[in-house]
Each structure stands twice: as structure tokens, then as C-alpha cells.
């Protein structure tokens, strides 16, 4: 192996080049996709303890001309690295708020809230607050129905500044959910200062909640913590009746997951709503 070290290096080097080339190609396609409207939102219902649909989380997908539907894991990290997450996230927010404004005029849908994922990079952009308020103005959406899902990684930035921005948005009626809760590295003392109204139990705890005693303890602790702080606790990634039952019995407030519905295109989601009303 030592003798061929140099060849290995060249081989490795060309592998790196392949990866770099693929990234550059994806970057060009991503920018093109945004300018030519290739992104869509899917809607996943969120239900209360009586299984009533109380809202949706919007999840972005890339409808690629030749590669079909691409999931966010394949493009969000790159979009974050090249800053494209800012216009992409703004597009998602604007599209979601436009939908909110439409539903507000429909009596059987006017109660729905919409949760939009906001990347930490997007939130930390200097004009984020102004951009959100501009979207609310442009679309006419009710800010009280808008929920922004942020993650604990937001605490890596200047916490005072983050809280200030959140409070400004909150004064307009916008609320916050802490996504993927329990997977981050945040200290509880910071956490309790964040003006969030909801905790989302990460899917990784829900998955094995019935079989892994540690995950069961985590899930129950998050629910108790949320209760103590006066927050709504939502479980994500609920796939079975048994998982829902366990979380329900331990006083979880709201649920989301394939057990209720996968994320759906708009038409299918509206049909789902009509059938579950
Ligand atoms: P997330 O915010 O934690 O979203 C939940 C993910 O779990 C979604 O994956 C959803 O499709 C999936 N999921 C929901 N229920 C279940 C279930 O019962 N079982 C399993 N196995 N999975 C379930 P998706 O749509 O692939 O999104 C992945 C991540 O991409 C999201 O994780 C979020 O972090 C990010 N993302 C999605 N849309 C946006 C967006 O508009 N902006 C930003 N910044 N990030 C987004
Ligand atoms: Ca989320
Ligand atoms: Ca999540
Ligand atoms: Ca996640």
C-alpha cells in the first residue's frame, strides 16, 4: 500500500475534484431552480389530543426538471453554505403566508396555523425581522397564525440579539417553536430565556419511545419541562398508534407524523382536511 501511496493520493485527489465539481453543478442548478420556480411546499398536518387538525408544517421540496422530487436533506445544507437559504427561506415564508391568507377567508380552514422552518443562518441575517414583516404586509396573512420553527443552534449566535429579534416578531403576533428539541447543545438557562411557545420533541426520541427506556425518559422529561415552562409540546415523527398512545398518556399536547399523514401537496392536504373535518 505504501508503494502506491502517490497513486492513491492522485486517486483521492480526483475523488475530491469530483465532489467539488458535483457541488458546483448543484449550486448552479439550485440558483437556477430558485429563479425558475422549481420549489414547492408540502403540507404536513399537526393534530391536537382529539386528533383535530390544528395546523400544518410546510416542508420544502425541489421539483427538479430531470431528477424528480428532491428532499431538503439534499440541498438545504448546500443552500446554507452558499447563502442561498436566505432567498429560498424567504420564498418558503412568502408562499406559506400567501396560503395562510387564502385559508383565512375559508370558514372551515381559517383556524389553521402554519409553521415555517427557519434556518439559523436565515434568522441571523441582519434584515430578517424586516423581511418577515414585509412578507406579512404583502400577503395580508394573520401573524397570529404564523409559527416559526427554529433550532437550538440559534443559541450559537449572540443570544441578546436573538432574543431581541424574537421579541420584535412576537410583538406582531408571530410565535416560535423550538424544533428537534433535545438534540442540540443548549444550556437550559439560555433556553428558558428564549420566547418560544412550543417545543417539538425530536423524531429520534419518538421512534423508539416504546422500546428504548432512555428515549421514553427523554420524551417524558421534555413533556414535563414544557409543562413547567408553560409551553405546548408537540411530538414529531409519530408513526404508530402505540407511539401516539404513549405520548398522549404522558400528556403530550400535539402530534405530527406519518401516523396521521405524510407531508402532502396542497391539493391532497386540502382533501385530507375535508375528510377529517
Ligand atoms: P424537520 O423540520 O425536523 O421536519 C420534519 C421532517 O420529518 C420532514 O422531513 C418530514 O417529512 C419528516 N417526517 C414527518 N413525519 C415523519 C414520520 O412520521 N416519520 C419519519 N421518518 N419522518 C417524518 P423533510 O421534509 O425531508 O425535511 C427535512 C428537514 O429539512 C426538516 O426537518 C427541516 O429541518 C428542513 N426543511 C424542510 N423545509 C424547510 C424550509 O422551508 N426551510 C428550511 N430552512 N429548512 C427546511
Ligand atoms: Ca420543523
Ligand atoms: Ca423537527
Ligand atoms: Ca429534524
TrEMBL record:
GO terms for biological process: cellular response to nitric oxide. The keyword Cell membrane applies. It is found in: Cell membrane. Residues 23-277 form the EAL domain. GO terms for cellular component: plasma membrane. It comes from the Bacteria. The keyword tRNA-binding does not apply. Its main location: membrane. Keywords: Cell membrane, Membrane, Transmembrane, Transmembrane helix. GO terms for molecular function: cyclic-guanylate-specific phosphodiesterase activity. This is GGDEF: diguanylate cyclase (GGDEF) domain. It comes from Solimicrobium silvestre.
